[in-house]
Design a protein that fits this description.
Length: 270
């Protein structure tokens, strides 16, 4: 038990770490313990206060204040890579928070979210290296905090977290990344295309993890998943979502045909 508690202390330290490079190293080392069988994640127990570390930069602004640039310019490609790197950095914290915050879940739940944290850390390192090759580093441009805002709104209920972070915010990446890839390919930026193709494939698996645990929690509570998801969308998003949707990727990630039909209708009414 002491060894398990020590590993969870390492997870807390990784979440609290403000330096992106150090955070990624800590997450990778933590998941290596899981992969090697030296630590079987068990219930972390009451979370208490969880400190979420982030660097002093980037400056966080309202999404509407972020400039829009075409990908035909270097500045446009820098801005896109920086924005995706910021999403991946937040996703590291989100995955660690999901593992640490909610007690009473099966061991497989904690292993899943530590695996996601490790994937997100690897994605961030890939993008940071690409950003540096483009002449910037993470923090050089402003960013927004939408992902973490929803984490705070869903901190009270693991079922709501699984519904709204993986299945709404992270699933949005499945929708928009193919368009980014197409426009970057047209601009000749095949290095960034290759990174985004890896990220898109792995993010689909992350959304699927969220779908699986959302449905499992609904079953435990005697709730119908499709109706519950619709009710949560109404409550937190006013029943409106942005389109278009990547329907094949969402289907592979655990969305039912009825959910996809309803989501499509919501985007058309937005």
């Amino acid at each position: 038990m002491a060894e398990v508690r020590g590993c969870w202390q390492r997870a807390r330290a990784a979440l609290a770490e403000p330096d992106p490079g150090a955070k990624c190293e800590q997450v990778a080392a933590l998941f290596e313990l899981v992969q090697s069988g030296r630590w079987q994640p068990a219930d972390p127990g009451p979370c208490g206060v969880l400190a979420c570390g982030r660097p002093g930069r980037p400056q966080l602004v309202n999404p509407g204040r972020l400039p829009r640039r075409g990908l035909g310019s270097l500045q446009g490609r820098q801005a896109l890579v920086h924005a995706v790197a910021h999403i991946e950095f937040n996703a590291i914290n989100l995955a660690l928070d999901a593992a640490l915050r909610f007690s009473g879940m099966p061991d497989a739940y904690y292993a899943d979210w530590l695996r996601v944290a490790a994937d997100e850390a690897r994605h961030f390192c890939m993008l940071q290296a690409r950003l540096e090759s483009l002449g910037l580093t993470y923090g050089d441009l402003p960013a927004h905090n939408g992902l973490w805002d929803m984490a705070e709104q869903t901190a009270h209920d693991v079922m709501i977290r699984m519904a709204l972070v993986p299945r709404v915010l992270e699933a949005r990446g499945l929708d928009v990344t193919p368009g980014m890839i197409e426009r970057l390919a047209q601009a000749g930026d095949h290095q960034t295309v290759a990174l985004l193709e890896v990220i898109l494939e792995e993010e689909e698996a992350h959304v699927a993890i969220g779908s699986r645990w959302f449905k499992c929690l609904c079953e435990q509570r005697g709730l119908e998943p499709e109706a519950t998801f619709r009710e949560l969308l109404e409550k937190y998003y006013g029943g409106q979502l942005r389109g278009p949707l990547n329907l094949p990727a969402r289907q592979r990630a655990g969305f039912s045909a009825l959910e996809l039909e309803r989501l499509t209708a919501l985007t058309e009414s937005a």
